[in-house]
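One-letter codes give the sequence; backbone shape is given numerically. An example follows:

. . .
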Amino acid sequence: MCNLDRVPLLPAWESDALIVDAVRSPIGRRKGTLSHIRGDDLSAQILNGLVARNDVDPAEIEDLQWGCVTQINEQAWNIGRNVALAAGWPVSVCGTTVDRQCGSSMQTNFNAAAAVWSGQLDLVVSGGVEMMSRVPMGSNNGSMSDAVLERFDVVMQGFSAEEIAEKWNLSREELDRYSYESHMRAARAIDEGRFDREIIPVDVDVPDADEDGGGAATMTRTRFAVDEALRRETTMEKLASLQPAFVPEGKITAGNSSQIVDGSAAVLVASEQKASQLGLEPRARFLSFGIAGVDPHLMLHGNPDACAKALAKAGLTWDDIGVIEVNEAFASVVLQFLADTGLGERWEAGDVNPNGGGISLGHPLGATGARITATLVSEMERRNARYGIGAMCIGFGQAIAGVVERL
């Protein structure tokens, strides 16, 4: 038996988990610009852009925590490790791949912060990638145990989004209005340069558009720097004309759902000692995280619980939070969150998803948690807000949230 009296106890909190920087690729629409590059190669450009602009030697980085949902084909074989190798980093930089479904790269944030808080690691990159044009969502489908299926009626997320709309009495017009506003906010953010600091432009070899399909395509090196999934021309009338995507006479359409896209994002997390040693200027710090488990059938309604847990850990309330990012998996998910938290007026005021989200920018599954973090930190700086929170619902009945403090 272990005698705990003889075991030296480590401090509960070894160091702050500092966010030195948070960046992302521009988001490519389905079959768009980024469909011509592998996910590991795209991620490598984001990683090298991250360390270059912070003047960090990659050899200083101890681990890469990388989110990815569809881990098959080009995204298989522990893409987290392969991303670091593709970037040309030393073999001493470790890497692992994390799948908490849509919350994968928010979980990598959690992993990186926990490693620094506990004193186990000093410099970690968290982030993720999802190339939904090249590796289709669901192409890694498997089977589920009868023990699970006997307990729960597990359905596609779109059906759960429909049930949330019904249970929370959300009308089709409300869903479409939210979606229209998401596009308008994203358009304004792009036009005002709000994403400029977080985006790392990438180089992609794109086939010439005038090729007739005969013979090898002529490739042109293209610098890609602006999100391309946004639909500036959309209107309430166009959104209302779309047919239901999951249930006949239903409310969920392609227009009020997140877009299938390609993208990568990364966050550089450091201990106080390492930041001081390398002369790094942190932009923010992680304060707390919260995770919630909910009914796997309804599935997508756990954001309020995850946020409540994260806020309690940080000793904060909604009144303390200046910027709120809630992943726009579906418009019904965000409207349910606003209803349960009483934050509807904060959304109207522009404090919730002020620059659009998954509906307008797109939701590259494994990258979105880090993308939200990059957007959150940038917006907190723009507003001089002290605290912010990012939250995401997760397939099969989970949610995750993280609280950030600007420094």
Observations:
- The mean pLDDT is 95.
- The two ends are 45 Å apart (CA to CA).
- DSSP finds twelve helices and twelve strands in the chain.
